[in-house]
Every structure is written in C-alpha cells, then in structure tokens.
Amino acid sequence: MTRKIDFNVFPPIAKNKERQIRYASHTDSAIFSIYASELSDNYENYLKQLSLGDVVLAYRGGIGYNVPFAKSLFDEIRGRGACRVICLDISGFFDNIPHEIIKNNLCSVLGDRRLRDDWFKIFNRVTKYEYVLREPLKAKLGKLKGPRICEIETFRRVVRPLIQVNGNKYGIPQGTPLSGLLANISMVNFGELYTLLPRHFRP
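Structure (tokenized):
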C-alpha cells in the first residue's frame, strides 16, 4: 500500500493506494539482484543507442530523483506555451504485463536472439512466480515477526499448501529486485515511438 496525495481539494488529502506488493525470498532476492545488475548495464546501453537516456526516468539508478525531473517538466511546459500534456496513472500495470512482450524485449536488450538458459530460468521464475498471501499465512501462524517466520517442518506442513502460482500469461510481482527493470523493458517499444516524432515535438 502506498500513499497518494489528492491535490483537487484544499487542504490536500493523503489517500492510501492499494498495491499488491510481493516480496521475494532471501535467496531469490540475492539471485535477482545479481541479474538485475547485469541487466541494468545492458538496459542503459540500449537506451543510449536509442537516444532515450533523457526520456525514461523510473526504476533507474544514478540519474537523480523526482523533484528536479518534475521541475524540468514544468519548465518545459512553460517554455512551450501552447501545448498538451498527457498524464497517465495505469492501474495494475505490473499485474498485466504480457510475458511475451517481456521475453521479446529482454532478448533485444540483452542482444540475443533467444534467452540464454540461465536467463530463461530467471524469466520463468519471475513470470510463473509462486506466492503466499499474508492474511491466510497469519491465520495459520499467528503474528508474523522476525527474519524467519517458521521452521522448515512448519513450512512443509503449514505454508506449502498455501502456495499459489501465477498461471497467467501476463503479470509479474511488484517488489522483487528485477520487477521495475522488467517493467521498463516491457515499454521499450513505446519509448521507441519517441524517436519517430518530428524534432519540433520533442523537448
């Protein structure tokens, strides 16, 4: 759950925005982090090749933070004068990304015609993710606390029957070290449309 500010009223009201956050296990997080580091380098190079380094902002490290970006956008709008700005807030974005698009774009960013065996396993792990919902788990184990919620025998007996699997051909969990990067990569073709715009339409 995240907090969202409603500026349509005064004083502004903070509203809770429901998000399905799914955290990876410690082992998966460590593995995903290694692959995210490799993929990030490839992604940055890919953006440079497409001249999109100044266009894509979300889920990238080392490029600054939101406040200067927002200011530069408002400065650009003021400088242009008569223009139209499209603002979109896509609900359930992570939950509905088609896996085929992620796979195809991932190949493009990695510079491969097909995913390497290790990347294919990572892709499957993220897209066919397994998860346990918090409330049913609390109902079985009580209050969840500490870095380890139960012993291995309890996991096998109590937790394993609660495991669900994403059987859809779309959706990735929001909350793993790879999720934001894969979401960006799924939008690569959308970003490429920017390069097709006449120059007087670009910042």
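Residues 196-203 have pLDDT under 50 and may be disordered. The longest helix spans residues 26-49.
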